[in-house]
Each structure stands twice: as C-alpha cells, then as structure tokens.
Amino acid sequence: MRLLEMMNEVVFNANKPWDKIKNTQVKDLAYNSSKCRDGYMFIAIKGESLDGHKYAQDAYEKGCRVFILQDDVKLNEDAIKLFVKDSRIALSKISSNYFGNPSKELKIIGVTGTKGKTTITNYLSTVLNHAGLNTGVIGTNGTFYNGKEERTANTTPESYELHRIFRDMLDSGVKCVSMEVSSGGLMMDRVKDINFDVAIFSNLSLDHVGPKEHPTFENYLDCKAKLFTLAKHGIVNIDDKYANQIIEKATCDIDTFGIENKGDIVAKNIEYSRELDSLGVSFDVATQNEEFNTYICSPGTFSIYNALAVISVCRYLQIDQNTMLDALKSAKVKGRVEVLPVLDYATVIIDYAHNGVSLENILQTLKEYDHNRLICLFGSVGGRTKLRRKELGDVASRECDLCILTSDNPDFEDPMDVIKDIADSFKNSECDYIVEPDRKVAVEKALEIAQDGDMIVFAGKGHEEYQLIKGENLPFSETEVAINAAKRIMENKGKKQLS
Ligand SMILES: CC(=O)N[C@H]1[C@@H](OP(=O)(O)OP(=O)(O)OC[C@H]2O[C@@H](n3ccc(=O)[nH]c3=O)[C@H](O)[C@@H]2O)O[C@H](CO)[C@@H](O)[C@@H]1O[C@H](C)C(=O)N[C@@H](C)C(=O)N[C@H](CCC(=O)O)C(=O)O
Ligand SMILES: Nc1ncnc2c1ncn2[C@@H]1O[C@H](COP(=O)(O)OP(=O)(O)OP(=O)(O)O)[C@@H](O)[C@H]1O
C-alpha cells in the first residue's frame, strides 16, 4: 500500500524529502517489533511498562524502513522517520486507513460500564442474529462471527486488531458488531477511529483505578463518557448514580431506560421465576406509546437492566418486537449466571463475579428467590491487591449461609495464603466456611453437601477454562467437573442423570 494512503489524515513531520516519501510502499504495520517483517512500518509506542522506541533498531533489523515515532531514535540513513504527536493515536488512524476504514461500512454498537458489558453484547448478538442481521461480537470472551472464534489479549483489543477484525467481518458478510468498550480501551484511544452507531452505558462503580489503570475515579468516568462523543446515538441507564454526568458529556442524542418511573423505556410489574434449569424474570416494558411483557432466563434486577439496554437498541434499530422478545427469552451467556441443570433438588450456578460489586449483586439477586441455604464457592487471584480478597470475603460472609474457600488463579502465590486473607472476613460472621485449596475437590464437595432447595454458586471462573498456576494456564473446566461430580451423586442416590 502507498505510504501516503496509510497516512491519510495523520499529521506528521518527516526526515526525508516529499519525493522520497511519495513513492514509498509499505506491506503492513506492527506496533510490536517481534511482529515486524521485511517492508513493514513500525509504530513506536510509549507504553505502560516499556518504551517502543527502544525496539526501533530491532524492527529495522527485521526489514522495517518506515518508522512512526514520537521521539527521534538513531537508525541507519535509509530509514524514513515520520514524527507524530501521539503514536497510539496515529496507530488508530493508520490501522483504519490500512484496512480500508471498515468500521464505516458496519453498524457498530459499543457497550461501556463497570458491569454488564459481556452480557449485553452477547444478548444483542443473539437478538440481532435472530432478526437476520449478521452480527459479530468483540469482548472479554473473545471475538465471534460467522462461526469463527478468536481469543484477544484485551476486552477491547488494540486499534490495529480491531480494524483487522472489522475488515475480516465485513468481507465475510457481517453487517453489525456488538462490542465491549472498556475504559482502558477508551483511555488508550484504541477505539478513536471507530464510527459507532450506538453507545450504551450500563453502570459505574469503583473499579480499574490504580497503577497501570486509571489514576482517579474521575478519569475512569471521563474515559467511559468519551464513548458518547464517538457515537451517533446514546443509550443510558438513567437509574445509575453517574447517568447524568455521562449525558452531560455526550455529544449525541440520548435515550434512557430505567425501572419503575424514570426513562424513555421503563420496566415494571417484575416477577421472578425459578425452574430446575433456569432462573428467570418477567416484567412489563412501558414506553410512551405502548406496553409489552418480556421474559428473560437470567435472574434479578441487574438482568432487567441488561435486557432494557438491548430493548432500547432494538427500538432504535427498528427490530421487529416479536422477533426481539422471542430471542430474549432464551438469550444466555457462557459463565454469566449460568444455571447447570445437574441436581434435581438444588440449583447450581456458574458465574464470573470476581469482585465485591458483582459478587454482592449475584448473591443478593439469588436471595430474592425462595431457597434453603445459599452456598458460595470462591477464591481470589494471587499476586494482586489484597483489597479484592477482603471485599469478596466481606460480601460472601455477610450474604451466604455457607462458603467454600478455594483457589482462583493463584499464579505464583500459595493458594492457602490467599484463602487465609479471605478467611479473615469470616472472624466476626455467622457464616460457616470450609477450606479446600484444590478447586476440583472443592466443587465436588460443594455438590456432595447440597441439600433440598439449596442454591450453590461457583463464583469467579465463569467462562474461563483454565486455572493460572505458577505462570501457566492449566486446563480446568468447572462445568465439566460439576457435571461429572453431579452424575456420580445422582447415581449414588439411585436417580436419573440430568445432563
Ligand atoms: C497496562 C496496559 O494497559 N497495557 C496495555 C498496553 O500495553 P503497553 O503499550 O503499555 O505495552 P508495553 O509492554 O509497555 O510496551 C510498549 C510498546 O513496546 C512494544 N514492544 C515491547 C517489547 C518488544 O520486544 N518489542 C516491542 O515493540 C509493545 O508492543 C508496545 O507497543 O497496550 C497493549 C496493546 O493495546 C495492551 O495489550 C496492554 O494491555 C494489558 C495486557 C492489560 O492488561 N491491560 C488492561 C489494563 C486493560 O486494558 N484492560 C481493559 C479492561 C479493563 C477496563 O475496563 O479498563 C481491556 O480492554 O482489556
Ligand atoms: N448490569 C449489571 N449490573 C451489575 N452486575 C452485573 C450486571 N450484569 C452482570 N452483572 C454481574 O457481573 C458479572 C460480570 O458480568 P459481565 O461479564 O456481563 O460484565 P462486564 O462488564 O463484561 O465485566 P468484566 O469487565 O468483569 O468482564 C456477571 O456474572 C454478573 O454477576
């Protein structure tokens, strides 16, 4: 591709005369020197831990002759150096140009917020695909479209990856993209050159503030709000404490949703239902002109908010109402409040909740259903802040009847040290707990002690199919362990296996 085509709309100074730049061709671009090949352009980024400029020489040795730089670096005479103010911003524009600006031809819906991003994006793709709009998903669980699946390093991948994925989606017939937009992605300008059709705000609570993330909560909020300056239309959860601040910073028109009495669309007459293989909720949706009943097979108030976000998008995109309601009825997301129908006398749930806010949400939600004991199995990641262990321990010891403390990605830390920190929260609590560092044995124990009407939550792993131990992701499927253990238990009780 012509270098100048790639640099379209990028402001730069060059170390070479116009004639030389004008005729230069570039094969591809890379922001990591290890990915550089002969004829590539290298973009040097000043990162959180390293400075990409230090790797320019490495890129040169691999055959790069065009360099996008913020600072000058010493390179051989034949290197073309293009100086920009901010390399990450340049990366975004250059990537979009290189892949032919695919986001302009796709309908892109971005979801931001502390909780609910994965759930809303997946619900959206279920509904839109059901309505005949070929929809791809980008987020924490990876990238999915047309039967293709790709793991990505970030919830919101780097701009180069995003535009590459958009191009492939477009070429394979995708019309619409439902993507998670993390505050980190917004802070690092990964989505700067995306034309969002719709932006959604689910909620905001304290998270991702600290080293290598956001310096302050205000910065976290500002980054989330940025999405509403990149979109044509916004959809906001008006019941959230920070909704008005998001709306004030938005440059697009906004629709709102809420429960009971606020918002352009409102949920009311809420009823919970519990079956062996599902926990659901039905409610009426009221708009200015109409009212209709909705059912979703996910429990609690937060699921209603997630569904309202999806309903708002469908209304904006003019999706047929019956098609939408039909798809919402069965929309599920792997590892998000996923009910495993394995015991015929207790409800077993796998959920990704791995911080205080989300664990509190799921536990309080489950308590709204009739139950015997509420049992929670969980651990906390090793080698990270002890605050998360305390908040998880505090919430679980307050909300549950029994807890099973186990491992959750201990990495290089001794799982028993993490468990001891969590157990501190139980000192002044009436909640009993069992310690079992081996997560497989812990899951088996939890199912063995289950009684009639119990609700058992396996929290933390969600969709993850590994356990991070000593720097290595070792295969571990909580679902598989639970299904096998439950089969044995049902057999021993002389009962028919369920799944
Ligand atoms: C701390 C952080 O945010 N790091 C992100 C960042 O890496 P970085 O640019 O700081 O990388 P660095 O290691 O300092 O290296 C600087 C530059 O040198 C280059 N390099 C490095 C080594 C080498 O040999 N050659 C070379 O060229 C690197 O490619 C890079 O361009 O940019 C990378 C590309 O975009 C990200 O993959 C990476 O995310 C890491 C994996 C991460 O964990 N990030 C978290 C904080 C994050 O982004 N999370 C959000 C979800 C949370 C939220 O809601 O905000 C997400 O969207 O995933
Ligand atoms: N709207 C919501 N409000 C509060 N909690 C929620 C909401 N939706 C889901 N949850 C809870 O948070 C957990 C994570 O949900 P989800 O993965 O959809 O959020 P996310 O924004 O993608 O989170 P993360 O950034 O941790 O991946 C769920 O398993 C559930 O327990």
Automatic annotation (TrEMBL):
Q: How is it modified after translation?
A: Carboxylation is probably crucial for Mg(2+) binding and, consequently, for the gamma-phosphate positioning of ATP.
Query: Which parts of the sequence bind UDP-N-acetyl-alpha-D-muramoyl-L-alanyl-D-glutamate?
Result: 33, 154-156, 182, 190
Isomerase as a keyword? no
Modified positions (N6-carboxylysine) are 224
Instruction: Outline the extent of the Mur ligase N-terminal catalytic domain.
Output: 29-84
Q: Which cofactor does it need?
A: Mg(2+)
Q: Which domain of life is it from?
A: Bacteria
Primary residence: cytoplasm
Q: Where does ATP bind?
A: 113-119
Q: Which Pfam families match?
A: Mur_ligase, Mur_ligase_C, Mur_ligase_M
The pathway it acts in is: Cell wall biogenesis; peptidoglycan biosynthesis
- E.C. code: 6.3.2.-
Question: Where found?
Answer: Cytoplasm
**Domain Mur ligase central, chain residue ranges per copy:** 111-313
Q: What class of enzyme is it?
A: ligase
Instruction: Give the UniProt family note.
Output: Belongs to the MurCDEF family. MurE subfamily.
Q: What does this protein do?
A: Catalyzes the addition of an amino acid to the nucleotide precursor UDP-N-acetylmuramoyl-L-alanyl-D-glutamate (UMAG) in the biosynthesis of bacterial cell-wall peptidoglycan.
The family database entries (HAMAP family) matched by this protein are listed as:
MurE (MF_00208)
Can you say what this protein is called? UDP-N-acetylmuramyl-tripeptide synthetase
**What is the originating organism of this protein?**
Romboutsia sedimentorum
